[in-house]
Design a protein that fits this description.
Length: 278
């Protein structure tokens, strides 16, 4: 009964992973025959200042985007959970950016953030948000947060609605205020959802590509390498050079990094989660 699913997982997940690992030991430009070079691609990767700049840009992007998206998503979910008039319409509006194509969103936002775009018209300025090295990466992180808060808020909303009301009633009888209830009851009981959201948000932020590509008008890294996240660097190495072996080595590094951080998150949340709330 499991064979069809196992075949799908094997051919479309496991086989590509193995192929990428193998290619990372080759020198190949997609035209000439591949040549085995051992760990040379990894040595080139680790000795490249540009690669470490992309790691740094990715970490900064994630440190800005993930806390912002999770915090705003939780606040929106708390507001929607009050079931005020119009909450259903707001849920749909929040989800629309997430289901839209990231590349299209990046292009639209690049128009809005242009010196003569709508954002500057509203603010009464002519700031080149995406051409300034000080603002480019934070602006990309802002657009990422805007795109993903709806997705995150829906998961938090489902978690909030699964908490029995009698727990809050008991807390109110004990004199707990809104802040105390949120900190001591709500947040601990939604930790499984928080763990899921953190893991998926981290993976998503480390793999962000099309949004950056759209925002930089097809010049990932502009300006001055500030938006050169790991995924865009892999794309550039693979298809602009092309250096398929180096790109595969960076992909292997990114996979290992994601797995390690996910394991750290899992160990942290493992003993801090409550699954049974009835």
């Amino acid at each position: 009964m499991l064979i069809p699913s196992l075949i799908g997982v094997g051919f479309f997940l496991m086989v590509p992973v193995v192929v990428v690992v193998v290619i990372s030991f080759l020198k190949w430009n997609l035209i000439s025959d591949p040549t085995f070079v051992g760990l040379a691609n990894y040595e080139t990767m680790f000795s490249s200042p540009g690669f470490w700049n992309s790691v740094r840009a990715t970490l900064i992007f994630s440190l800005i985007a993930i806390p912002g998206a999770i915090t705003l998503g939780l606040l929106i979910a708390v507001g929607l959970n009050r079931k005020l008039p119009g909450s259903g319409v707001l849920q749909i509006m929040y989800v629309i950016p997430w289901v839209a194509a990231p590349l299209a969103l990046g292009i639209v936002w690049s128009w809005l953030l242009a010196p003569s775009g709508l954002i500057n018209e509203v603010l009464g300025t002519r700031v080149a948000w995406l051409a300034d090295e000080r603002t480019a990466l934070p602006v990309v992180a802002f657009v990422y947060v805007w795109q993903n808060i709806g997705y995150i808020s829906l998961f938090f909303l489902a978690a909030l609605q699964s908490i029995p009301r009698d727990i809050y009633e008991a807390a109110a009888l004990d004199g707990a205020g809104s802040v105390r209830t949120l900190w001591s009851i709500t947040l601990p009981l939604i930790r499984p959802t928080t763990f899921f959201v953190m893991v998926t948000s981290f993976i998503s932020s480390f793999q962000v590509f099309d949004l950056v590509y759209g925002l930089t008008d097809g010049n990932p890294g502009y300006p001055g390498g500030t938006t050169d996240v790991i995924a865009t660097r892999i794309y550039t190495a693979a298809f602009a050079s092309p250096r398929i072996g180096e790109a595969a080595a960076m992909a292997v590094f990114l996979t290992i990094l994601i797995v390690l951080v996910t394991m750290v998150q899992q160990r942290y949340f493992a003993k801090r989660m409550t699954y049974e709330m009835s």
